[in-house]
Amino acid sequence: MTNASVDRAGRVYEGPRDLGPGECWMCGPTDDELCRSERWRVVLNWNQDRLGKVMIALLRHEERVSDLSDAEVLDLWAVVRHVSDRLRELFEPDQLNYSFLMNLDPHAHFHVIPRYRSPREFLGTTFVDLEDGDERRLAPEVHRRLAEALRAAFERPR
Predict the structure, then answer these.
(1) Which of 3, 62, 64, 134 supports an S-S bond with 108, CB 3.0-4.6 Å?
(2) CA dihedral in degrees (96, 102, 103, 105; nearest 10)?
(3) At 58, phi and psi to the nearest 5?
(4) Residue 54: CB partners within 8 Å, gap ≥ 6?
(5) CA-closest candidate to residue 48, choices 157, 156, 137, 158
């Protein structure tokens, strides 16, 4: 059994490969939303191979990053700064990596990936920086409480 995300409508999302043609989970509701700006929303990544890994997804459907408006780009960078500051406060990562990775989800979104040289603890769960390509799904209660902690941190003013 996997640790799937369930949205408010009761739909189960177990990862990008579980969607049918033409479906875009980033356009729909999700309980993993942590905060939003006028044009973007921050979503907890279901793969927590790095503690606090999030995605910043455009609120409208767009598959080409090069087609973002100037206002969307400026708003994205404001959200990136805010999320980065709060992740540093909450988990003290040694580094933050940033990337547009749209090979599995064709929707403009930006990954913020904390990196750690030493293990971190959260709710009795030890997180180590896994090798690239490894996946880590959290127990549902740990996933829910991580989302709550991030929501609380991200709600603080910019």
Answers:
(1) 62
(2) 120
(3) -65, 140
(4) 34, 42, 43, 44, 45, 83, 87, 111, 112, 150
(5) 137
Give the tokens for residue 112. Answer: 């913020």
Average pLDDT, the chain: 85
Q: What is the pTM of this model?
A: 0.82
The string of pLDDT tens digits covering residues 10-22 is: 444 454 444 455 6
For 102, the token pair is 């749209």
Closest by CA to 132, choosing from 54, 47, 55, is: 47
13-58 confidence digits (pLDDT tens): 454 444 455 678 888 888 899 999 999 999 999 999 999 999 999 9
CATH superfamily of 5-13+21-120+132-155: HIT-like (3.30.428.10)
- How far is residue 138's CA from residue 146's CA, in Å, rounded to a whole number? 9
Task: Print burial letters for 59-84: b (CB count within 10 Å at least 16), e (below 16).
Answer: beebeeeeebeeebeebbeebbebbe
In DSSP terms, 40 is beta-bridged to 58
